[in-house]
């Protein structure tokens, strides 16, 4: 089975621009979670999508948004980029269940390295 | 609420020596606990996980961890370090009420000295 893929792997933007990152989960996985990794804050949860619905959200401003398509692929969007948004953005997929409280093993992609100048 | 504390942001060991990476957690519900490894410019790879079965968990590459509820700890060990173990290691916790939302520690960078 192919693993989680993220595109692009590297991205350079300037302040004020917006960016869209893409994540393709493992085939058959319906849950996609996004994390931001920075040297100062470490790994922080952004949001999780399951069956095209956001069902959990971390503590990030509204400039960070996402969506999931019917084929489970997910995109996240960051508008009005700030220097502090420079980070490695990781996507994780899992089988997912309708019952939110059940944990499923997560598989992480290689990440997208976003640099904001 | 869940949180993780990793003691020691940098750990150095000699090749062949014991590896011990410390992780303490806080959780208001029975936790699921994980150790991940990250190599430069790569994503996270699961080393092992505790999900309320055996308290001593064996993972890949010779790593293991023991869940100690009384100490709220989940330390990662490996009897003999190899050069290829040099990487960043993250401990994470998820609760039975948080689904796939993981709370990660700040990471421990392991250096292996030849």
Spatial shape of chain A? globular
Radius of gyration of chain A: 14 Å
Helix content of chain A: under 10%
Count all strands of chain B and give the number: 11
Largest sheet of chain B: 6 strands, mixed
Taking all Cα atoms into account, the compactness measure Rg of chain B is: 13 Å
This entry's quaternary arrangement is heterodimer
Please mark out the parts of chain B with pLDDT under 50 across 5 or more consecutive residues, or reply none. none
Mean pLDDT of chain B: 90
Describe this structure in words.
The complex is a heterodimer of chains A (117) and B (114). Chain A is an all-beta fold and 117 residues long. Chain A contains no helices and 11 strands. In chain B, strand 9 and strand 10 (103-104) form a beta hairpin. The mean pLDDT of chain B is 90. Chain A binds chain B through residues 4, 31, 33, 35, 42-45, 48, 55-56, 58, 90, 92, 94, 96, 100-111, 113, and chain B through 32, 36, 41-46, 49, 51, 90, 92, 94, 96-107.
Task: Please outline what is shown here.
The complex is a heterodimer of chains A (117) and B (114). Chain A has 117 residues and is an all-beta fold. Helices cover 0% and strands 51% of the residues of chain A.
């Amino acid at each position: 089975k192919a693993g989680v893929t993220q595109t692009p792997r590297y991205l350079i933007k300037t302040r004020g621009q917006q960016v869209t990152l893409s994540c393709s989960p493992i085939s058959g996985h319906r849950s996609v979670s996004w994390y931001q990794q920075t040297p100062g804050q470490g790994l922080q949860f952004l949001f999780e999508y399951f069956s095209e619905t956001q069902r959990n959200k971390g503590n990030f401003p509204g400039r960070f948004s996402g969506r999931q398509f019917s084929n489970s692929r997910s995109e996240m969007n960051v508008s009005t980029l700030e220097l502090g948004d420079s980070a490695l953005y990781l996507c994780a997929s899992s089988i997912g269940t309708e019952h939110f409280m059940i944990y499923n093993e997560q598989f992480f992609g290689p990440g997208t390295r976003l640099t904001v100048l | 609420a869940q949180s993780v504390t990793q003691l020691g942001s940098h750990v150095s060991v000699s090749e062949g020596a014991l590896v011990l990476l410390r992780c303490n957690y806080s959780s208001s519900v029975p936790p699921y606990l994980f150790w991940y490894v990250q190599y430069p410019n790569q994503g996270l790879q699961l080393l092992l996980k505790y999900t309320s079965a055996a308290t001593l968990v064996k993972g890949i590459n010779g790593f293991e961890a023991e869940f100690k509820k009384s100490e709220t700890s989940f330390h990662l060990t490996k009897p003999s370090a190899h050069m290829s173990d040099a990487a960043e290691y993250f401990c994470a916790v998820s609760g039975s009420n948080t689904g796939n939302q993981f709370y990660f520690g700040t990471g421990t960078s392991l250096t292996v000295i030849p």
